[in-house]
């Protein structure tokens, strides 16, 4: 899961809002929107934060 499209698909699969994912990842929601629209290129650090937040959300879902 290295690009924003894959991250967004996983976010939807986990039924997370963009805002909730951004808060969990510690990034500004406007950054996420710019990434999705292709207005900016994601740094590896930003992608890592998003992937980590998704992994935590997936673990929580699995524990329920």
Automatic annotation (TrEMBL):
Know the name of this protein? HTH cro/C1-type domain-containing protein
Q: Which residues form the HTH cro/C1-type domain?
A: 7-60
Q: Which PROSITE patterns match?
A: HTH_CROC1
Which species?
Answer: Methylobacterium jeotgali
Domain of life the protein comes from: Bacteria
